[in-house]
Amino acid sequence: MKQLSNILQDIEHQLLSGSADVSIQNLHFDSRKVEAGDVFIAVPGTHVDGHRFIQQAIAQGAAAVIAERFEDVDEGASTLVTMGDTAGALGKLASNYYDNPSARLKVVGITGTNGKTTIATLLYLLFKKLGYQAGLISTIKYYVGDEELPATHTTPDALQIQSLMAKMVEAGCEYCFMEVSSHAIHQERIAGIAFDGGVFTNLTHDHLDYHQTFAEYLKAKKKFFDELPKGAFALTNADEKNGAVMLQNTVATKKAYGLKSLADYKCKVLEKHFDGMLLSIDGQEVWTHFAGLFNAYNLMAVYGSALLLGAEQELVLPAISELKPVAGRFEIIRSTDGKYAIVDYAHTPDALKNVLNGISEIRTGNEQVITVVGAGGDRDTTKRPIMAKEAILQSDKVILTSDNPRSEDPAQIIADMETGIEAHQRQKVLSIVSRKEAIRTACMLAQAGDIVLIAGKGHEDYQEIKGVKHHFDDREVVKEIFNLN
Ligand SMILES: CC(=O)N[C@H]1[C@@H](OP(=O)(O)OP(=O)(O)OC[C@H]2O[C@@H](n3ccc(=O)[nH]c3=O)[C@H](O)[C@@H]2O)O[C@H](CO)[C@@H](O)[C@@H]1O[C@H](C)C(=O)N[C@@H](C)C(=O)N[C@H](CCC(=O)O)C(=O)O
Ligand SMILES: Nc1ncnc2c1ncn2[C@@H]1O[C@H](COP(=O)(O)OP(=O)(O)OP(=O)(O)O)[C@@H](O)[C@H]1O
Ligand SMILES: N[C@H](CCC[C@H](N)C(=O)O)C(=O)O
Ligand SMILES: [Mg+2]
Question: Is 198 annotated as a binding residue?
Fold first, then answer.
């Protein structure tokens, strides 16, 4: 059993009352989970301040409470400790609690607006192919070696991260690949992790509801690289305008991948097809099962990271050649009469533009592109009209529909998207609130050879309407319409 003093190691704090030599059970930052013998850490949140729940945690038998301040608190039998920034300390406390698992793993964090899940998942699969045990923390799933666990967040809270990493160490993993979201950086969910590498993909419009301005969003992403330790690598996208900015103040070893600009890891696209691309990576020809130029970038991030982690090029390239697309990322479903549906998780203007670019690159003739797209409720509203605009620019027909409306009125979200449409484009657009009906209509409008892009939900197997998650899977809906299985 752990003592409170064990978890306070190397963290500046003041003991306000009680003893640090008290035995402790579990750590919690949610008072509702506190049981006798646990430690409650009060952190300021985005909705309420966790400091409001200190008395409740004490009443539930907390052995200790760690907070930035105590106001009108009757400590009872609990030890009280104060420290400057509890949100920042949470990860370190948890790391101490689990015997610093990240120091025993090679941890690579991937950040940027788009491509994180793809790169993290492909790195996990690549290192498994190379014969290592690895862990994955990503939007779709968490993996501890081969054990699959449901994902709650792209980057979960600090306690969950450290607990997952402890399980990875226990399962014999050597590597951990994790997505690092801007929310996680801003909320310090990643504090206390000993990173061995950081990867930057790109920075485009998203999450401005949370970060308010693009400059703040950029600052959050950059903080990740600013705080990487010496000895770690910082791998960036040389062709992205914010790529160099990200590494401006890092002490980590700076490296870059790219297709156009000067870079340490270089790539050329030799051939583009529906079922893959032929790439030249550092002068070596590699067939890949990925379509879309953006995936050449993702694969270069994977390749560069693998080499920086010490893997050998002659083993990495053949393994890359065997990798397959990640669930719901440019997933192609073909009907028996020759129509193509592509299910893709593009839920930002830039991702939508890129995925449509990807489709344009492989169009051979007069195929029509019909795009079905919505936008999530309770999320950045400013991206809605821009997403509609991007969809129209590269589609012959667009059906605006619902994504996850969450607490919002789906018709209003569609109306917000419609403001991005110009009068002369109106005849190209249909609005259908039911996502199933929207997909059905698109598939009916399509002729043999045509491409139906179903964007926004990718791997998701639910649709959240008025706070309730209903089972819904774009891929299942398409297969039913195409009479497959
Ligand atoms: C806006 C946001 O990011 N919120 C996250 C945040 O919660 P919060 O700050 O809002 O919590 P709060 O309700 O204000 O409560 C503050 C504190 O009081 C505590 N509390 C609260 C009530 C109580 O009775 N007792 C108590 O102790 C809470 O446990 C918390 O510690 O901290 C929580 C714990 O880490 C997260 O679960 C929660 O994620 C919410 C659910 C969420 O939806 N987040 C999304 C936006 C998110 O993080 N997304 C990114 C991906 C984005 C992307 O790149 O696409 C992700 O990494 O998943
Ligand atoms: N490198 C890239 N550049 C631009 N767009 C991309 C890139 N990689 C993927 N995309 C597009 O973005 C979508 C989301 O990809 P992915 O899930 O890998 O990103 P993510 O960063 O994990 O997103 P999230 O923040 O939602 O977890 C894909 O379905 C594709 O349309
Ligand atoms: N991680 C993103 C996922 C968005 C997926 C899209 N389908 C939506 O619901 O908006 C978010 O939570 O903003
Ligand atoms: Mg992701």
Answer: no
Looking at the CA of residue 119, tell me the nearest atom of ligand 2: 18
DSSP for residue 33: G
DSSP-derived letter for residue 51 is: G
Task: Classify domain 2-97 at the CATH topology level.
Answer: 3.40.1390
Report yes or no: 139 and 229 within 8 Å, Cβ to Cβ. no
Six-digit token string for 377: 């409720």
Distance 23 CA to ligand 4 centre (A): 38
CATH 3.90.190.20 corresponds to the domain 331-481: yes
- Please check if 348 is assigned to a binding site: no
* Beta bridge pairs of residue 148: 143
What is the Å distance from ligand 3's center to 376 Cα?
Answer: 6
Beta partners for residue 468, in sequence order = 465
Q: C-alpha angle with apex 228: 224 to 172, nearest 5 degrees? A: 105
C-alpha closest to that of 124 among 104, 113, 140: 140
Distance 380 CA to ligand 3 centre (A): 10
Residue nearest to atom 10 of ligand 3 (CA): 376
Q: Domain-by-domain residue ranges, the chain?
A: 2-97, 101-322, 331-481
**Nearest CA residue ID for atom 52, ligand 1:** 181
pLDDT at position 206: 66
Please work out whether the CB of residue 163 comes within 6 Å of at least one atom of ligand 3. no
CATH 3.90.550.10: does it fit domain 101-322?
no
* Burial (CB count <10 Å: 0-12, 13-18, 19+), residue 378: middle
Report whether residue 155 contacts ligand 2, using a CB cutoff of 6 Å. no
For 92, 219, 285, the CA distances from 102, given in Å and listed in that order, are 11, 25, 36
Q: What is the pLDDT of residues 349-408, one digit of tens each?
A: 999 999 999 999 888 878 999 999 999 999 999 999 999 999 999 999 999 999 999 999
Ligand 2, closest atom to CA 330?
29
Residues pairing with 17 in the sheet? 80
**CB 175 within 8 Å of CB 132:** yes
Ligand 2 neighbour 106 (Cβ under 6 A): no
| 334 assigned to a ligand binding site | no
Amino acid identity, position 305 = S
Long-range contacts of 145-148 (CB under 8 A, 24+ apart): 145/171, 145/172, 145/173, 147/171
Both structure tokens of 461: 């197997």
Residue 479's closest CA among 332, 356, 352? 332
Separation of alpha carbons 269 and 258, rounded Å = 11
- Flag whether 115 is marked binding: yes
Q: Which amino acid is at 209?
A: D
pLDDT tens digits for range 416-442: 999 999 999 999 999 999 999 999 999
**Short-list 381, 399, 403, 380, CA closest to 391:** 399
Which atom number of ligand 1 is nearest to the Cα of residue 182? 54
Nearest alpha-carbon partner for 235 in 303, 138, 305, 306:
305
